Amino acid sequence: MKNRCFSIFLIGSALLLMLLFPDITLEGTRCGLLLWYQRFLPAVFPFMILSGLLTGYLKKGGAVFAVAAGFLNGYPIGAKTAADLKKKGLLPENTARYYAVFCNMSSPMFMTAYAGLEKEMPVIYLTSILLLVVFCKLAGTQTGRQKKSHEASAADAVSPAQNETGPNTGDYLLDCTGIMVKAGIYIMYFSILMELLSQPACSTPALKLLAPFLELTTGINRIGSADFPMPSLAGYYRIFLCVSGGLCTAFQSGEVTYDLNLSLPRYLLLKLIQASAACATCFVFHSAFPV
After folding, report:
1. Which pLDDT belongs to residue 291?
2. pLDDT of residue 162
3. Residue 160 has what pLDDT?
4. What is the pLDDT of residue 225?
5. Gap between the Cα atoms of 166 and 145, Å rounded
6. Are 71 and 78 in contact (CB under 8 A)?
7. Which of 218, 271, 257 lies closest to 36, judged by CA?
8. Which one of 152, 173, 221, 225 is most buried, by most CB atoms within 10 A?
9. Alpha-carbon span 218 to 198, nearest angstrom
């Protein structure tokens, strides 16, 4: 019922925007489709397939694999990998939720080449790992003997056919294709909203600060624009946006974590904590080691 109500809201609001602002809607749709086809699809789709197939053959080391896949591959592969590992039994549910949040990150290529965060990237990753450890400990996650016991029970829970033959490649490709299509819909929707907020009637400082949070890639460009308010904080806003991912990425991640009982408000709250901690740590780093 919850997903159905949200789908009705999404479709209804999109139709309303088309009726009230047809030109803005068409331009936003065009930008969203280009962003999805030229940047998101080639950057995410191959790595999603590869990480998913590797997850299917994995028998232990789920925590390490979740961190590596999430940090290296970009949104929303970290969240999907954590959900797949939980489904396979290699991560308990309470742990998988935090891996789906704190390991769901912008890729190193995006942070260095697109956002210009070469020096800050190690600090961001270290902060995320520390938060992951802290929240997993608070959730009652333990290491050593209990972890080995969990992995042994998880191996018993997985069917022998899955352990021996791995995942069904055709079904997984179909699943990844569906995720890509849903991600494209979200990108188009939030691109329309960003196009609406870029109009002269919406050119207030508050809305200019809000607009980049709607969609990650376009938001990075907005932060670098000449009319962006508070340019002295632009660098920290890029850090905040790369770590939090923005609203569009949150909705994309929600599509792949539906079986983790991770609500959108909780996901956003944890992401805001992670992004704020990364900004604070980078500020301390910049103060201690000025360029």
Report:
1. 61
2. 42
3. 39
4. 81
5. 27
6. yes
7. 218
8. 173
9. 12
Question: Residue ranges of the chain with pLDDT lower than 50?
Answer: 1, 141-147, 150-165
Whole-number pLDDT of residue 7 = 67
Angle value at C-alpha 188, between 185 and 191, nearest 5 degrees: 150
